Amino acid sequence: xxxxDLDAVFAQARALAPADNGAAERFLVGHRQRRAQQRxxxxxxxxxxxxxxxxxxxxxxxxxxxxxxxxxxxxAYQSAWGDGW
Length: 85
Prior knowledge:
Elements: H1 3-14, H2 18-62, H3 72-81
């Protein structure tokens, strides 16, 4: 194969055909659909995480705090200062 034949092959490969335009369009449509699905999935996860965080925060605020036992250090401090500190 000489240089002239190679130039002709490369020129033919560079020229777009109607089938190339259709393939590019199909690729772009599929790519856009995949990106939209990823965005939808990501939005769903973010919403679920925010809802879970709100539920946990609501439960911790609404639930009464348990009575914690006084530690030995607190007892010693209170006895040293008295009840009115």
